[in-house]
Structure formats: structure tokens, C-alpha cells
Design a protein that fits this description.
It contains 6 helices and 3 strands; from the N terminus they run ααααβααββ. It is an alpha+beta fold.
Amino acid sequence: MAGPQDITFLEERIKEAKRQYDMFFLGIQKVEPYKLREEIRQMILKMHADHLPTYPLKFKFKALVDRFNMYQQYWDRMLRKIEEGDAKRYHQKHEEMESPSRRERVVLLERKEDGSFKEESLWKVYSCYMEIKNLLNEPPENISFEKLSRSVEKKAFDLINRSRCSSVEVKIVEEEKSVKIKLIPRP
């Protein structure tokens, strides 16, 4: 019978798979983490066969399965794009983002017609952030694309409202052996 510790372990494995796939799509990790994905599938099948003792555990398990299925759809879509050659931006060597310093990257946040930022721009920020962390041999904290992009978007909107600028430039730099993200208003 599956218990709370099994559900917690499954949740940790799903988070790890998400982190590894993000690194794979950014080109930091060279091999797709399909073994971990298959291990999670097997854990889910085993837990489906086992009886979960309480409704809260059943609810949490169902939520984790739904999250994993959503991630799988996203991963499959990205893998298809890579195979078709449409996802170059995730594996490129960031030549367009290079600046004179080896450990500094600059990305202009592009906006959509509705005012939100384009996902491609946010992926560039995340990619540069992870790249500099990798150059500094820092362990990639459990920071996901969603978490970083939410933070950058919030700060960018605050900056736009305060400074009345039309666009924002994001500078990802090495400072004192750590990675810092700075937002600069642009007219």
C-alpha cells in the first residue's frame, strides 16, 4: 500500500525530471533524461495498482499524475520541435547574446500586442542565467523556468510602471562569484 512518503518521493522525482528536461532543452544537458521519465511512469503505474488509504493522498496523487502528464505533453512537443528544427533557440550557443565580458549576457524583453512578454525572450533570460551558473560551476538551484520568468516579469512590469519606459533590457552578470539579474529601462 502506497503511503505519504511514496507520494512525496514521486513529487520530488517529477520536479527533478522537470529540471533535467529544462536543462536538456537549454542545451546544458546533452542527453534527454528519458530513463527518469520512464522510472516515474513505472512508479505511477505501481501506485495506481496499490490502494491509497486516504482521500487527501488520492487527491495529491491525482494532482501529481495530472502535472506529470502536462509536463510530458510539453516535453513531447519540444522534442518534436527540436526534431523538426523549429526549436533552434533552445540549443543555440547564444552568439546573439554575447557581450564583451564572457560572463555577462544582455537580453531585450520583447512584448506581445497584449503587453505581456514573449516566451522566447523569457527563455533567453533563463538560458543565459543557467549558462552563467554553469560557467561559474555553481549547482543549478531548483529554479525552474516558470519561477524565474514570473520574477523577471513582475520586476519588469514594476520598472515599466515606475520609469514609464517602453521596453526593458535584462542584464545577467557575474558579481562576486554569483549570478545577478539586473533590469534596465529602455525608451
